[in-house]
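Box 3.1 A note on notation
Throughout this textbook, protein chains are presented in two layers. The first layer is the amino acid sequence; the second is a token string describing backbone geometry. Keep the layers aligned when reading.
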Amino acid sequence: MGLAEKRAVSAYQTDNFISWKPKFDSLCGFDLGLEVQWEQIAKDGWANDYPAIFEKNYYEPLAQALGSICGDDIGRTGFKNKFNKIVIKNDNKGNFVSVSIVDNKLILNGSPAAVNLDNASKETTKALIKNLEQAL
């Protein structure tokens, strides 16, 4: 990650990301652990697009899925009993975001795409909801 990417990640963390964690906690009803592996998800050369890339690929789908799953007491209780952390990382080779569940962690793993962000957001949201419903 070069200087431009480091600056863009820092600006995103300060200006945008800070509001997502409380939103996730509110949606799921407890203080949820959140680990973002910034060095992995920040693609070189795309610093100017980080806000849209991060939000459409990771944070908006996650908020929508948490709202859907934790919208009632059954979902909130099930989620709280099953998960203690969400991990966002990119150690995949493809241009997609996959969803998995490992050791009480919900993992969003994959390269954020800079094209067709709306479609990527919808697909990630569907995958999150499907995996969460099956896990709970």
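The radius of gyration is 14 Å. The first helix runs from residue 3 to 15.
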